[in-house]
Structure to design on (222 residues):
C-alpha cells in the first residue's frame, strides 16, 4: 500500500484534479479564442487599408498584439496606420471574470497618420466608453458639444464649426448603426485620426470601412 493512497482516495483530491484539468482546458481554449479574434481583426485591417508593407508584434502574450501598416500609394491620404489590440484574459479563468467586470470587452485602438493636417478637431465618442480611464478628451472646453443618438447608443459629438457638425451628422445619418465603433477622433495638433472599436470576429472590416471612406471628407487634402 502506497503511503499516499489515503490522499488520492479522498474526495478533495478528485476535486483538485478536476479543477486543475478545468484550468488547463480553459488556458488552451482561451489562447485559441484570443488568437482567432486577433487574426480576424488584423486580417480585416489588411482588407480595409491594403498596406504596401506591414509588421506584427506580440506585446502581451495571449492578450496583446500590435501592427504597423505602411501605405505608399500615390494619392492616398494616409501614410501609416498603427493598430493595437488588447483582449480579455480568456486563458486565465481565475482572473477572467474580474477583468470582464473591469474592462468589459476587448479593445482595438487604431491610429491613422494623415499626409496633410486636418482642418479641425472633432470627436464622436460613446458616452459609456468616455467614462473609462484613458478615454477622456483633452481641451474640450474650446469645442462645441452635442449629445446625439447613433443607433442604440448615445454619443457625445465635439466639433469646432457648423461645417464639421454637418459632416458628422451626415455620416451618422448615412450609417445609422455604429456597430462596434465607440470613438472617432480627428486631431490636427497630432496630424492623426483615431478610431476605437470592439474587435469582434468578422465585424471589424464591416464597421471600419464606412469610417475609412468618410475620413477624407474631413481631412484637409491640400
Amino acid at each position: 500500500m502506497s503511503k499516499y493512497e489515503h490522499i488520492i482516495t479522498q474526495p478533495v483530491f478528485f476535486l483538485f484534479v478536476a479543477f486543475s484539468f478545468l484550468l488547463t482546458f480553459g488556458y488552451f481554449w482561451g489562447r485559441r479564442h484570443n488568437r482567432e479574434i486577433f487574426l480576424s481583426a488584423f486580417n480585416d485591417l489588411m482588407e480595409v487599408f491594403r498596406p504596401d508593407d506591414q509588421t506584427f508584434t506580440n506585446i502581451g502574450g495571449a492578450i496583446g498584439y500590435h501592427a504597423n501598416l505602411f501605405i505608399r500609394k500615390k494619392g492616398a491620404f494616409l501614410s501609416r496606420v498603427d493598430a493595437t489590440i488588447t483582449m480579455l484574459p480568456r486563458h486565465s479563468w481565475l482572473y477572467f471574470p474580474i477583468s470582464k467586470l473591469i474592462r468589459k470587452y476587448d479593445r482595438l485602438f487604431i491610429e491613422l497618420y494623415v499626409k496633410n493636417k486636418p482642418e479641425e478637431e472633432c470627436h464622436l465618442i460613446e458616452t459609456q466608453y468616455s467614462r473609462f480611464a484613458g478615454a477622456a478628451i483633452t481641451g474640450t472646453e474650446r469645442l462645441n458639444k452635442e449629445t446625439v443618438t447613433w443607433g442604440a447608443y448615445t454619443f457625445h459629438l465635439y466639433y469646432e464649426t457648423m461645417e464639421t457638425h454637418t459632416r458628422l451628422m451626415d455620416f451618422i445619418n448615412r450609417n445609422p448603426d455604429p456597430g462596434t465603433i465607440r470613438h472617432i477622433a480627428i486631431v490636427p495638433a497630432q496630424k492623426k485620426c483615431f478610431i476605437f472599436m470592439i474587435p469582434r470576429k468578422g465585424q471589424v472590416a464591416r464597421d471600419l470601412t464606412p469610417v475609412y471612406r468618410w475620413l477624407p471628407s474631413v481631412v484637409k487634402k491640400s
User: Anything to note?
Assistant: Strands lie at 53-58, 64-70, 78-86, 107-114, 122-126, 144-150, 153-159, 181-187, 192-197.
